[in-house]
Hints:
This protein is α+β, with helices and mostly antiparallel strands.
Amino acid sequence: MKGFTLLEVMIALAIMAGVILTVISSFNYHLSVVGRDREETIAVLLAREKMADVNFRFTESGKGTFAPDWPDYTWETAIQPTDYSWLKQGTMTISWDTERRKISFVKYLPQ
């Protein structure tokens, strides 16, 4: 007789189910990584744009949003003194995902 036995078919199906499950979970994980990287890239570009803006004063603490283009992203600046009297530290924090995700940038400014 030629053909496969029921046991051989069941083992082959179990192996295929394991492989398909692994591929689907790996694909899902990598999609979430791509989404997170996209959000972080947007935050970095928005921070660079805000810090390079001529009208933006990075001399005092403040808060704001990137609305209407990016309403989910907010910014906050804080100015702290350093050990050197002629230098101060400015920190810009970009928040998104209802402030569950944050990224901070530091810039040293002359007094």
